[in-house]
Malate dehydrogenase
Amino acid sequence: MPTRKKIGLIGAGNIGGELARLCANRELGDVYLFDIAAKENFAKGKALDLEQNGSILGYDSNIRGTSNWADLEGADVLIITAGIPRKPGQSRDDLVATNLPIIRDVANNAKKHCPNAFVIVISNPLDAMVYEYMRVTGCPKGKVAGMAGVLDSARFQLFLAREAGVSVKDVRAMVLGGHGDDMVPVLSMTTINGVPATQFIAKDKIQSIIERTRKGGGEIVTLMGTSAYYAPASAAVAMAEAYLLDQKRLLACAAYLDGEYGYKDLFMGVPCIVGGNGVEKIVEIPLTEEEKGMLAKSAASVQGIVDVVKKS
Ligand code: A3D
């Protein structure tokens, strides 16, 4: 019996490929790069290229391309990127008609073949797709989370670091709420190694950084013609690693809310402890009245798209 962890990457496109590279490079386990039958050879080719890369970089992970769910049997982690990304001019919510049947197909197969996996959803519109995944599979709430907050926080931290003229390593910030233009960068908790960011950057400048963060995905779509994939993959791997290595990291993840922050039956970005049991705890941090108002606006946007999904 293999003792290596088994990581299933559902979608072998731009993010899927980078996820495979990072998982192998960090030797998190053996990687199965899954795509639809029409793209099976593409997945196999990408897997082989990445496996050969191990001879140079020095990792032993096996990497397999497949379109057969049976190969994913018993996976420890699933990271789902199946679906289409945005094109310039599209909002994330424009993807719902295409990506909803895809997440349903993936959820039905995952329920059958990988019932014990910790599942990280990346497909957009993120908060609605992760909601639908849990609704279809009925999996425990701690075993599924959406990746968005780690990425949105990373974007916020980078812009702050550049403006303050400090290392990005020292900027601590969290972006909560839905993964959309109403996301909530929590300024009251944003520090440069414990020193309030407002000591380094003027309020109006911070406001323009918040606006840039909120549109951070769109900025890249406009430049590249498709979605970002390096930072999204790194963000999801941070979550997977926290689970596989039981790191108990405090990460902003789209988690199932059952009364926390005053919301119920909704996935939205909140601070979570991620460890060997998945999302082990949702941490409720004090928010200012302004931040609470922004979170309410963001939650209403998420609820709007979830309502569409529920009726479809
Ligand atoms: P892309 O390079 O097109 O890869 C998606 C892959 O999914 C393609 O290879 C498809 O063939 C495959 N696919 C389609 N249907 C299925 C299916 N039923 N089963 C398995 N695979 C399938 O896209 P990408 O990797 O750039 O982006 C993937 C998704 O992530 C999109 O929905 C993006 O909008 C989303 N995304 C989310 C974030 C977040 O921060 C949440 C960031 C960037 C992209």
Q: What stands out?
A: The CA atoms of residues 32 and 64 lie 5 Å apart. The pocket of 3-acetylpyridine adenine dinucleotide is lined by residues 10-16, 34-36, 39, 81-86, 95, 99, 102, 105-106, 122-124, 126, 147-148, 151, 179, 226-229, 232 (CB under 6 Å). The chain has nine helices and 14 strands.
